[in-house]
Amino acid sequence: MAVRPAETGPPPKDHYLNSGYGIKSWLLTTDHKRIAILYLISITFFFAIGGLMAVLIRMELATPEGDLFQSDTYNRLFTMHGIMMIFFFLIPSIPAVLGNFLVPIMVGARDLAFPRLNLMSWYIFNLGGLFTIWALLHGGVDTGWTFYTPYSTRYANTHVIATGLGIFIAGFSSILTGLNFVVTIHRMRAPGLTWFRLPLFIWAMYATSLIIILGTPVLAVTLLLLVAERLFRIGIFDASLGGDPLLFQHLFWFYSHPAVYIMILPAMGVVSEIVPAFARKKIFGYRFIAYSSLGLAVLSFLVWAHHMFVAGMSIYAAAVFSALSMLVAVPSAVKVFNWTATLYQGSVSWETPMLYALGFIGLFTMGGLTGVMLASLGIDVHVHDTYFIIAHFHYIMVGGAIMGYLGGLHYWWPKITGKLYPRFWSRISAMVIFIGFNVTFFPQFILGYLGMPRRYHVYPPEFQVLNVMSSAGATILGVGYLIPLIYFIWSMRYGPHASENPWGVVGLEWETTSPPPTDNFEETPVVTTGPYEYPQAGEVAGVL
Ligand code: HEM
Ligand SMILES: [Cu+2]
After folding, report:
1. Quick one: how far is CA 427 from the chain centroid?
2. How far is the CA of 261 from the centre of ligand 2 (A)?
3. N- to C-terminal Cα distance for the chain?
4. Ligand 1 close to Cβ of residue 389 (< 6 A)
5. Which ligand has its closest atom nearest to the C-alpha of 318?
6. Distances in whole angstroms, Cα of residue 313 to Cα of each of 310, 319, 367, 377
7. Whose CA, among 302, 313, 475, 517, lies 20 to 30 Å from 529?
8. 518-531 per-position pLDDT tens digit
9. For the whole model, what pTM was predicted?
10. pLDDT digits over 483-507, tens only?
11. What is the C-alpha to C-alpha distance for residues 528 and 544, in angstroms, rounded to an integer?
């Protein structure tokens, strides 16, 4: 039976959005909900910049000749695209926006453990972003988002230092947010809220925070070493100074493989909320999903060298990393099976968040399975550094992580803003995004398999048809992303009021007003049941 958001009930008199209107009430706020909105604005801005670069890249690749940009400019474009999207959009996206908003509410607390630190994290994040944009405006960087040496040491005359420092600074914001979440989840749970009564989104945030806290310092140190080498000519990565360029790759991927889980785990957490909500069923295998999040966090630190199979390492080391990488598929598959089992015989309603969650499950599975293909040494040797890799990680990061982010945003938007958005347009845009995404990235699997290398802007004419498809798909995808931007902004002013629990679902966040009061709850809630306690088949909860 379809569940429609109810438009009933008067809006609450006092809530966090009307507790102050001046610019100061926002810029000096320590309310986690307002900080979530500040992050939403920042990352949307950074996403727009990264997106603009993507548009330019796809325009260049519509023809085999390098006729739009010089090679040098092209290098800078894909580098800044990757840096903006990964460090300034994807990594903060779900944790900093949805996590900030939801972690305290879902654990029944008034705020995060360290509210002022939370505000500081937002300032640090923007400082890092502005530093990076400064570098971009002054000529950019051409090393690729991975800063591989010797591009970033001996051969770079672009803004490696400024960009590296920008990412270094932003890293502190991640670490502080991670610490804030860990302490909050440990110390501030409402009475009765035991670990195994926590929503799976909280488990995902917890696992993500562990990776952030353990991994980010490694990246920070690596970037500092790079800067130190460039400034003081200490031999660390530069072979002519006695350094080792491969060391950079090890250090970089020791952070950056776990970082891919910083991007995907939160989206998995969102999907674990949406699936039971719109299947009206208790989630299947709660503990397995919770533990698989922790399992992914641990395993993610053991596989980094699969990015270096052809960089020069012993065949034995490669075999071990190959096997370990395949192990990662196990906890990932546990989640996919459990979501599917939850859907089975559920009373599924096709609301917008559910469309995104289903999109996530399909596309993440394709990304994950191609990951297993890449983890097999023999295949990777052939497709390494081709468009196959680009397709693999975009299936996970755009098809997976961004779908999860948008699904979450659509699920909790009525709670965040107290407003409803148009159901029709939101479902249309979810489908436009799904189609646009596949038309953009599926051809890239084929291109890579046929041998088109990544990071070139001139290619043989026989690859043009697939490239034109990809550019056309990117146009559809771009339109798909613009539609929610328009109706979300529209809904804030004109959207009908959302009731406390417009989807008729269970969860602490749905027991407070929409939008919630500054202190989240009138009284501290006391929890007596586990999450996802839906009525038995036949009875339908909530407002229809
Ligand atoms: C089942 C799990 C996965 C496996 C076994 C896997 C395996 C691999 C392998 C072997 C590569 C290296 C290919 C090469 O460069 O030759 C790779 C690249 C990559 N993967 Fe995955 N992957 C998995 C999941 C993910 C996830 C969850 C994400 C992101 C959220 C991700 C993001 C990336 C990125 C960004 C790259 C390329 C980085 C670059 O060179 O620029 N992967 N993956
Ligand atoms: Cu990896």
Report:
1. 21
2. 9
3. 9
4. yes
5. 1
6. 7, 10, 26, 12
7. 517
8. 999 989 999 999 99
9. 0.94
10. 999 999 999 999 999 999 999 999 9
11. 26
